[in-house]
Every structure is written in C-alpha cells, then in structure tokens.
Write a structure and sequence with these properties.
18 helices; mainly alpha; Growth Hormone, Chain: A; about 400 residues
Length: about 400
C-alpha cells in the first residue's frame, strides 16, 4: 500500500511538470512568428513583450508575498486557472491594445506560477529533482515541435485552445500534490513574513548583487527566446524545421539534468554561473560570425538546453544559500520580477529598435557584448560562492 502511495505522488509530479511546460511552449514557443504573422512589426512585438514584462515585474513580488503569507498552493492553482481563460481571449484578439492586455495578464499568471512549481519539486524528499524535471523538458520539447505543426496545418490561434486544456491539467496536478511545511512554509513563520520582508529580502546585499548580475543574463535570454525562431525564419528556414530545432535543443536539457548533481558537488555557484554565461556568450557570437543555418542549428542544439538548465538549478541553489527559508518564494519571485522582467523591458525595447534599424544579426552581436559585461560583473561584485553541494538528489 505504501508503494502505491509513492507511485501516485510521482505521477502527480510528472503530470504537473509535463502539462505545465507543454502549456508554456504552446503559448510562447513561436510567439514572435505568430504576432508578426497577424501583422505586428518587430517594434510592436518588442513593445508588447516589454509591457507584459512590466506587469509581471509589478505582480510577481506581490505573488511571492501572498504565497509566503497564505497558501502557496491555492494562490498558484488560482493563477493557472485564470490564465487558461485569458489565454483563449488573447487568441481571439487582433487589435494591438487588447493583444497587449491579454498577453500580459496570461504571461503574468502563467509564469508567476513557475517558482512555486520548481520549488515544489526541489524540496520533495521522495524523488530526485531530475526524475521529475525530465518530464518538463520532454513536455516542452514535444509541445514546441507541435506548436509549429499546429501553426502550419491549422492556424496560429489554434495553439491557444490546446494551451487552455494543458494549463487546466497543470492546475489539477498541482492541486493533487499533498504539501507540508517543506513546501508551504511553517505556520508561525508565515505570520512574521510581512514584518521582516524588508530586512531579509530588500536589504539583503548578497541578494541585490546577485539580481544585478542575473539581469544581464535574463535580459539576453528573453531576447533569444523571442527572436531565435525569427532568426532562422529570416534565413529561409521553414517554421516546422525551426520548431524541430527547438525540440532537439530542448531535449539537450536531459543530459544536464543528470550531470548537474555532480557539477554542483564539484563547482560552487559562481563557477556554475560562469559556465552558463560563457555558453550564452559563445552561442550569440557564433550566430553572428557564422550565419549559416546548419551551423547555427548545431550551436542551438549544443548550447540552448544546457545553459537553460544550469541557470534554473543554480538559481534555486543560490537563493537557498543567501535567503532564509521563510522568504525564499518572495526572493525567487522578486528576482524573476527585477532581474527577469525589468531587464526584459529594457532589452526588448533595445532589441526591437536594433532589428528594425539594422538587422537581427546585429542584435545577437549586442547580446554577446552584454554577456561579456555580465561575466565581468560576476566577479567584480564578488557574488557569494555558496557551498559545493547537490540540493536536488
């Protein structure tokens, strides 16, 4: 009987990761192609993404605070359910302002749930993080491929009806996972979250320095996520082949999932971030120096998945090293808001202008330069190294 209980819990984790990541891919994997396909310019796409980032930047610290103060699970499930409805409405819009509103609301709620979902798996004691996270990788990869096929054979808007189904399934999966103090936080600590939030998070010097460095990475990562399909499309690569490249590159996260426990025992946080920043710098620079689709596809395949997974896992480890447990959801969401969304606002506006005035290759040259500055800041600001330990096994 005990064995059956564990099996059910593992199925819940697997379904949570798979359905949530499938929904994310269906919603956003080819968003630049979809928006340009319905008549938006690169500047308009960048403006839409930037405004969405503003809404997320404002809302995510509030979401994290509410999760730390009340029920993390209930807040997360509510956001997923509402995002299902707003995602469908977004797919029906054609005017610029409604597109901005419903894309922003859907993104804010959908991505706002991500820190809790990642943490839910990270603190699980029954199964290793990698055994659960692998389903997210596979789900995202398959859905990225499917998004291109749906776009070509049905319509771009059809992706969002599938999104509706899978984000509802993700909400049900999150609901099905029984949680305790490790996932939800201690009741007595929740009562003091509001009182000590400023001291433990906003005035935490190590956390502030870490956000500054990560802003460099997240800003360029956001541009790459939005415009990489357009880079391939500008060179004559069909949409279905673009999504195949995305599929294969995402699957490369799987080897890193199994290597990360060893890497975390061997390297400290700054070394892990150096690896991720160096991979990103090399990727962006090679896109510029060798504008050949076959070579670029090989670069994407070898670098996109690994650098994504290294950052995801190192980010959670860094937060646990520098922020007290009761405030870690607040710190994760604030880092996502400031380092992720504020940098995205700046980078999206710069990126759209560069593409419209120069070219998408000039954009990637700029992104390589930003990564070089990020590597310098990583050491100049003396980011805490943390312990060489594996927190995901």
């Amino acid at each position: 009987m005990k064995q059956q209980k564990k099996k059910n819990r593992y199925i819940s984790y697997a379904l949570m990761y798979a359905t949530y990541n499938i929904a994310m891919a269906l919603f956003a994997a080819i968003i630049s192609i979809y928006l340009m396909g319905i008549g938006l310019s690169a500047v308009q796409v960048s403006l839409l993404i930037s405004i969405s980032s503003v809404s997320s930047m404002v809302s995510q610290p509030v979401i994290g605070f509410l999760q730390d103060r009340f029920s993390r699970k209930s807040v997360t499930v509510g956001m997923l359910l509402i995002s299902a409805v707003t995602g469908i409405i977004f797919s029906r819009m054609r005017s610029f302002v409604p597109l901005i509103v419903f894309y922003s609301v859907t993104s804010m709620l959908m991505y706002g749930a991500n820190p809790y979902i990642e943490r839910l798996a990270a603190v699980c004691r029954d199964y290793s993080y990698k055994s659960m996270r692998i389903w997210g990788t596979v789900g995202y990869a398959v859905a990225s491929q499917a998004a291109g096929i749906i776009y070509d054979r049905l319509s771009g808007g059809s992706n969002y009806y599938f999104y509706f189904f899978f984000i509802i399934a993700a909400a049900v999966s999150v609901m099905s996972i029984r949680t305790g103090e490790a996932e939800e936080g201690k009741a007595e600590e929740k009562k003091t979250v509001g009182k000590n939030y400023r001291r433990e998070v906003l005035k935490n010097g190590n956390f502030i320095k870490y956000m500054i460095v990560m802003a460099m990475y997240y800003g360029t990562m956001n541009l790459n996520y939005i415009y990489l399909p357009s880079l391939y499309q500008s060179e004559g690569v069909p949409v279905t082949l673009v999504t195949t490249i995305m599929f294969l590159s995402t699957m490369m996260e799987i080897p890193i999932l199994f290597l990360m426990p060893r890497m975390m025992k061997r390297f400290h946080n700054v070394q892990l971030l150096t690896i991720a920043f160096s991979i990103a710098f090399s990727q962006y620079l090679l896109y510029v120096l060798i504008p050949v689709p076959v070579v670029q596809a090989a670069v994407t395949f070898l670098t996109r998945g690994p650098m994504t997974m290294i950052i995801i896992m190192t980010n959670m480890k860094m937060i646990t090293d520098i922020v007290p447990p009761a405030y870690q959801m607040s710190a994760l969401t604030l880092n996502s808001a400031i380092a992720g969304n504020l940098s995205a606002i700046v980078m999206q506006n710069i990126g759209g202008q560069i593409i419209d005035r120069y070219s998408i290759h000039t954009l990637y040259a700029f992104m390589a330069g930003v990564m070089a500055v990020g590597l310098i800041l990583l050491y100049a600001l003396k980011i805490p190294k943390g312990e060489q330990r594996d927190m995901f096994t």
